[in-house]
Design brief:
The complex is a heterodimer.
Chain A lengths: L17 H6 L1 H9 L3 H9 L1 H6 L5 H8 L3 H6 L4 H10 L4 H9 L3 H9 L16
Chain B lengths: L2 E8 L3 H8 L9 H5 L2 H10 L3 E6 L14 E4 L3 E2 L14 E2 L2 H13 L5 E3 L6 H11 L8 E7 L9 H16 L6 E7 L16 H11 L3 H5 L3 H8 L7 H9 L4 E12 L2 E10 L2
Parallel strand pairs in B: 1-8, 2-7, 2-8, 3-6
Antiparallel strand pairs in B: 1-10, 3-7, 4-5, 9-10
Helix pairs in contact in B: 1-5, 4-6, 6-10
The chains are: A mainly alpha, B alpha/beta.
Amino acid sequence: MALEKPYLDVPGTTIFDSDNARKGYHLNQFCMSLMKEENRKRFKADEQVYLNEWPMSEDQKRAVLDRDYNAMIALGGNIYFLAKIFSTDGKSFQYAASLMTGMAEEHYKAMMVSGGRSPDGNRYTGEKK
Amino acid sequence: MARITAGVATSHVPLIGRAIDTGDTQSEYWKPLFDGYEFTRKWIAAEKPDVVFLVFNDHASAFDLKLIPTFAIGTGETFKPADEGFGPRAVPDVKGAPDLAWHIAQSVIQDDFDLTIVNEMDVDHGLTVPLSLMFGQPDAWPCRVIPFAVNVVVYPVPNGRRCYNLGRAIARAVEKFDEDLNVQIWGTGGMSHQLQGPRAGLINQTWDKSFLDRLADAPEELADIPHIEYIREAGSEGIELVMWLVMRGALGDKVKELHRHYHVPASNTAVGHIILENQR
């Protein structure tokens, strides 16, 4: 019998559950390796070569190279681990968040300052806004 | 006898630490946030806790996916600020309270909560930002700290009721410790925020304020909130609020709310802060 996963119909949201932790293990551990300066240097010097040292899927590697954070999350990435990538790039959480929402960073920041994204219309997939 | 005198809850956004470390707390963006901690700074300077039992979560700093403890108690003598990718924060090392921490571990594990015991770990912004908010920038933190890490990163995280009951068990343990100590318990993280995916930036002020309203006098209601409500209403990272329930559970049934502060935003997050004094 399947486990109950009531969070699958929350729009624009991926819960880092056992399925994602399983498939994203090597992707996330690669991210963790970027906590060390010598690894950041090697990664920046040749990203593809560095990624090839990890038993990640080609899709995962492509998503990293493209800095496609939504794709990385769909492939098992967790945002706190993915943060090591955008930190290596010298980018902030707000930059990454704006990228994932498809908004320009200044529009995203303005939305936050004016109270953030409303939950109304954002609770259930397919809900009328 | 050791006694828990008060509980403090606060968000622990990393950018708050950056604002403190770079002297930016009086800017237009940050001043309203820091003004809400002025009362607290004076209050805690008068209270002088001996030990803070600090409930926080690690953000892929000390724990990666090799090892994922649900509840981890720091029993070491010292904990260093973690390097989160930009070098460690220039804040003092955290001095532990190993005798009390081991006592709590032994008591709480026999009370059916299977803690992971950690003698060595670095502590990230989840722990050091609340210390900076309360104590500013001293050369050494004015109290000892027991770091208590809760997994709120890999789902499923412990539910609110279990966190609340864990707080109860921690209180029973502290009361059995013979040394005369003024102990505070802090719950950190939250409030509503979501850092990932197209729904990033979600803030739910109505829900947050209801949570704050009920923390002192209706904590049983909060303990019954299921995971899915946190996710749907307070964002995927809003689930950090279960850590506030460890704090509330460790206080008695009767508490007095001394101070409350709520501010949107700090970066991507709604900041909540409350002080509850134990009444006995």
